[in-house]
Amino acid sequence: MALGFFSRLKQGLSRSTQKLGGGITGIFTKRKLDDEALEELEDLLITADMGPAVAERIIESFRSSRFGTEVTDEEIRTTLANEIATILEPVAKPFEPDPAHKPHVVLVVGVNGVGKTTTIGKMARFFTEEGKKVMMVAGDTFRAAAVEQLQIWGERTGCPVIAGPPGADAAGLAFEALKRGKAEGADLLFVDTAGRLHNKSALMEELAKIIRVMRKFDETAPHSVLLVLDATTGQNAVEQVRVFRELVNVTGLVVTKLDGSARGGIVVALADQFGLPVHAVGVGEQAEDLRPFSAVDYARGLVGVGETA
């Protein structure tokens, strides 16, 4: 993680931290960890969007280890951060392109408005700064704003953007981009896609066509399918994962807009329910506010515990 990102992460999670940390302080001001306190804590975890399964598991851990002892809010916060980090650790996997694939094709999916295009632009910048040659496909062809936005990111990052006229065939664009990427020795090819989930069958057909057409040139493509989720939607993000896993083989998650809500706990629920890699989280508008996901930093930021050494 880049220097200073913990501070940005903590700032971005401040609304979640106020809700969770403030609730803990309200419950635990030097009192015994009894049934009543545990019940209040469980309710707090559920309302923080961690979901009942996670809340129950954490409460049982508290019950077996600290039940009946007198605790402070700081002790509860530290222990809670450790419990959350344990849940998040198996899914905290920064995205790494496979050098065996040139280009490594990344299909980026998600409903409209979650930040797919911005995520692609930020990831393109990140990997360009790492010395990778990156290309992008403006595959959300029915939304002129999405195409223009990706072209702006292309100008900022110096990455080629393959785009067509409004309503162009996204699969054809992806195919041409893949051919060009191979010819030019690109390391990464990000493919933006439509997100009109209200017409699920049409979206399924479009995504299937993009994959089918790309495989005519490279039968292993796409090599990754990243699902972008908006944290402000809370538990609705869980349903989006279920739906998109029916449409495509989702290989990892990126969670955006954590700074816009008090629902940072949703990342914990997603980790527990699906076990999909969480590659990155977004906590602000700046390109550097999308960063590789760290379980410990996220857990500590979420509950308001200081930075690790």
Automatic annotation (TrEMBL):
Q: Which CDD domains match?
A: FtsY (cd17874)
As one GO molecular function, the record gives:
signal recognition particle binding
User: Can you list the GO cellular component terms from the UniProt entry?
Assistant: cytoplasm; plasma membrane
The Signal recognition particle SRP54 helical bundle domain sits at: 9-88
Catalysed conversion reaction: GTP + H2O = GDP + phosphate + H(+)
Q: Which residues does GTP bind?
A: 110-117, 192-196, 256-259
* Location(s) in or outside the cell: Cell inner membrane; Cell membrane; Cytoplasm
Might you name a Gene Ontology BP term for this protein? SRP-dependent cotranslational protein targeting to membrane
What SUPFAM superfamilies does the entry give? Domain of the SRP/SRP receptor G-proteins, P-loop containing nucleoside triphosphate hydrolases
Which residues belong to any copy of the AAA+ ATPase domain?
A: 102-253
What interactions and quaternary structure are annotated? Part of the signal recognition particle protein translocation system, which is composed of SRP and FtsY. SRP is a ribonucleoprotein composed of Ffh and a 4.5S RNA molecule.
The family this protein is said to belong to: Belongs to the GTP-binding SRP family. FtsY subfamily.
Protein name as it appears in the record: Signal recognition particle receptor FtsY
Name the gene for this chain: ftsY
